[in-house]
Structure formats: structure tokens, C-alpha cells
Amino acid sequence: MSVIDEDEALIAAALAGSPHAWEKLVKRYESRVFNQGLRLMGNPSDAMDLLQEVFLGVYRNLHRFRGDAKFSSWLFRIAHNKAIDLSRRKRLLAGTPPNAEGEADPLESLSADRQQEPEISLMHSELNQRIVERLSQLPLAQRLVVELKVFQSMTFEEIADLQDISENTAKTRFYAALKKLKQTTEDEHVLS
Amino acid sequence: MSCPKTVYLLQEYFSDSLSAQAGAEFDKHLALCGECRAELDTLLLTRQELLSWQEQRVPHWDRGRELFKREHAAEPPATGWFTRWQWAPTAASFTMLCLLLLNTSVSVSGSGFEIAFGGSAERAEIDRSLATFEAQQLAEIESLIRRFEARQDSNNVQLLQAVMEQTQQSTAESLDRIYAYFEEQRLRDLQDMQFGYQQLADSDYATLRSLQELAQFVSYRESAR
Q: Which of A8, A16, A142, B192 could form a disulfide with A138 if both were Cys (CB 3.0 to 4.6 A apart)?
């Protein structure tokens, strides 16, 4: 049985009321959603919030999933939208004005957060820590494109469709993001 | 960065829709342009560093299990006779209420039955017709009785006068004549009674016809509405 068929079988069983099927469905994707949350939100606490909101959204809308697209695509579309919502809420709670692109960015104040939230040190590896710090230098719009292109292996066409932007805009954002990341890496090397 | 093609080429490099021809031209340019080559290498290295991300384990959480169980427990599947028919008393009450509010009436006749809605005005009209009919009937009967009594009185007077005249001649003959007069009077009374009842019956038929026409009129108005 393929992954898609297994997903559909689990969805049908969950909709029929099987908690076991639901749990199995969550287990298949929770790690990807959580790690996406870590990269986008910058700390395990917010990543857990995102994880719970994503699967709550999936649970509430599971009966609407028609199987026209892959379940994973549907789920990560929800995750993408929830990440933007969560970022906006954090921005509002922090009283920080939106950035130039009008988007909330929880990682913009990552340096300050690190002093206040000990949980950021719960990152399992220094490598991950470094990646999060570099990603934190990007505006949310660019970080989302990097996440979708590099980590979710989506095409620019899919990214454009998901974010309701043109394909060229997606390419431009990705290129700009890589350039910025490259510059950050070079700056780190100079400082060290 | 002085190569004017760098930005465009590197943006397209990461595109999945790069054609074979464009790829060949891109490789050709990279072989000649060290600047674009160096830029591409650093971007690929940057991407590679991102891909060195180590998947982190998800902290323990209940995976929405409690929510799932609670919500599915709160909504048991609707099965069984009771759940299928539990709406019936409510529906019956609603139907009765509608019948009352719409003043529904059902009339059964030889050709079937008829359901009428509303009709308070029509009912009042029928009541008025019936009252008129009853009054007409009473008046006719009273008139008939008065005519009958008057005729009886007149006949009796005539009969007594005749008896008085005849009794002076012959007793046996007068008795026969009295008997004949009384018999004749009885037959005339019977004819009068028959005539009266015939008039009454004719009047009833006329009334029934008018009632029937009235009912048809009411039915026609209801269907036209």
C-alpha cells in the first residue's frame, strides 16, 4: 500500500471514529510539522504551539479533505497558513509594528528572546541552532519561500500557488534569501 | 558583481522548469564566467548548509487524542428506533398547530373527500344561509297551518249549516248525507295536506339546490385562491 493509500485509509478510519487511526495519522507527519515550526518560529515552544494548531485545524477540517490533492500537500498548506497566523499574533502581543512587507516576523527579535526564553537552548544541536539564527535574519516572506523550496522540496509553481504570488516573485524571494544567508555566513566567518 | 546575467541566471538555476536548451546555455556561460560560477557555488553551499538540518524529535504531546475521544464520545452514532422516530411527536404537534392555525376542514362526499383551508368567511356565509333556510321553512309551515285551520273552520261551518238544513227532512237520510259530507271533507283535507307537503318538499328541493350552488361557489373560490 502506498503512502497516499495509507493516508486515505487512516483518514477514513479516523472519520469513522477510530482514535488509533487518528494518532497514527498524526505520528506520520508531526515531526515534519514540528521541525518546520522550529525553523519558522525559532523556538520549541512556538513550534509546539504551531504543531497543535495545525493538527487541530486538520482535525476540524478532515471531513472536508476530498483527496483531490495529496494529504501531505493539504496538511502543509494548513501549516503554512497557521505559521503566518501565529507570527501575526505574536507580533500583536509583542506590540511590534509589521515589517516593510506588512508581515509579522517572530524571529526578528530572536536575539532578545534568547535572553528571556531559556527554551531556545533546547535546540538539540548547535547546527540547528546556527541555521535558526541565520534564518532569523530573513524577513518572514523570504523565510517561508526557503522553507518551502529547500525543506519541503516544492517547485516555484507550487510555492506561487500556495502564497498567491507570481512564480517570478517566488524566484526573486528565494534568490534574495540565499544571497542574504550567504552574506550572513560570510559575516560570521569574518567575526570568528 | 559585474556580469549582467548573474541575477537572472541564478534565479533560473533553481527553477525546476529550466529547459534543456536553457540549461546548456547556462552551463556554457558558467564555463566562461568565473563570477557567476563563484556566485553559484556559494549559493549552493548555503543551500547545502540549510539541508544539514537535523530532524529534532517532537516533545511528548497527546496528539489531540483526548479531544478526539471526547468529541467522538459526545456524538454517538444515530442508530436505533428511538433516534429515528424521536422527531415524530414534535412533527405531529407542529402538524396539529398548522391545522388549527389554517382552520383546515375535511369534507367527505360520494366522489371522494375535499380539504379546505381557512374558510371562516365561507363558514359564516353557510351559517347565514342555513339560518335563512330555517326561517323560511318555519314561515311556510306556519302559513300552511294557518291556511289549513282557516279552511277547516270554513268547512266545518258549511258542514254544520248543511247538517242543520238536512236534519229537518229525514233522520236516516240526513245521517247518510252527514257521513258523505264528512267523508268528502276528509278526502279534501287529505288532498290539502298532500298539496301542502308537496309545496314544502318543493321548497326543500329549491333550498337544497341553492345550498349546493353555494357550496360549489365556495369550493370554486378556494381553488381559485
A: A142
